[in-house]
Amino acid sequence: MVITGVKKLLFFFSALIFLVYPLHSRAERPHVTEDLGTTEPGKFELEIGTQFENLGGSEEKAVINEYALITGIYNRVELNVIVPFQLHNSENDHEGLGDMHFLLKSRFLDEGDYTPAIGALFEVFVPSGDEEKDLGSGHTDYVAKVLFEKNIGKLMLDINGGYSFIKEGVDKFFYAASAHYALFDRFHIVSELVGEADHKAKNEDPLFIMGGFQAHFTCETFMDIGMRFGLTKDSPDYTLAIGITIPLN
Fold it and tell me: What is the pTM of this model?
């Protein structure tokens, strides 16, 4: 199949980025993997993104917009406010606000010559989405992650490991690894592997790979495109993510 062939190419693409020579910048969109860059105190950024998901089968699709306001609240400490909005879902035909989440990220150890930077984040999901319309979970969830980052020339590697504390349901373990390579000053290629594990799950755990790029207009303003492919039956078949990041001051 064409999709299977593309997945194999993305595996090769991901491996190539991890092995190529080396970015002293942030991983950012379209990654799910968190980087350890933090916005300067008093500065604000806006991220606007759209996801086109194929949930399985030609007729099962979803379109989700996401808006993120990012600000530095202290040296090495950053606050993100993320607002998702579902525009279309062929399974239920519902539109509306999803569960908002608030993310606090801190880098508490800078990288050394042979050691990675280390940090952590704490994220809270609030039940702002309508549970009856499948736009939200109906309860507050919490996520904690440990972050590692290492720069090697133009290559930046990030690894995340975390755990979600779900009020109603089974807690989950998250893991992610990403590579970000500055091919040119204004054109960067990206890849990642992201998954979650639930020891009580009856189905396969979600797992996907992503390949994409960033096109920089300035040092801080860029657009991004990423293509994700699910590797298990419990993952969306594929997701196209498109977005833009803009400094506000």
Answer: 0.83
